[in-house]
Structure formats: C-alpha cells, structure tokens
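Folds abound. Consider this:
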Amino acid sequence: MPQQLGRHRRSKRLGLSIPVRVYGRTAANRPFRATTETNAVSVHGGLLPLNVKVKRGQTLLLVNVITEEERECRVVYVKSNLWSRKVGVEFTSIKGDFWHVYSAQVGVKRRRDGDS
C-alpha cells in the first residue's frame, strides 16, 4: 500500500480510555466543562468524544482525572455526525507524560510468562 504524504505520526497512538475533564468556551463564548474518556492517546495529545461543539484551532484545558494534572491543548481535528463528535487535541507544549503511559514503556522489556 503506498504511503500517504503528510500522514506521518510523530508518536505512537495507544487506544486507551482515560477519564478527563475538558474546559473551554462554546461557539457562543460561554464557558463549559465536560467529563469524558479518551478513545486514543499519544505523547502529543489525544482523541476523545465531546458533546460540546468546538472548532479547529480552539484552545481547551484538559485535566487528567486520575492525576489531576492540567494541560493546555489545541483542537486539531473535529469529526461530527448525527450520533457523536470526535475531537483530536494536540498539547500546546510537551512537558512530561500527561497520560502516564509512555514513560513506563521507555527502556522496559515486557515480561513473558515463565520469566523470573
């Protein structure tokens, strides 16, 4: 299959469900807070369902419910249909492992059954 130009990922995506709170403003400039769970995460951001209407380029604040860490992000992808809305976000700065799933994988081999 030919490789598509411009479709390179900077980091691996993991299909994980991590609870987050999302803070931002609606198109009518009203503040909102939504609680949801990610569909996928990467070092650079994540993909999540969001019932609130947002647009590309908009700034949001994500809070990792497990750790209570906050991270500013930008909306880079929005896909809506009659039943749902998926939003892709990219962190505005990369400061550590916001999701706490990547740092544990670096340089660590997984144990196989029977290893001691």
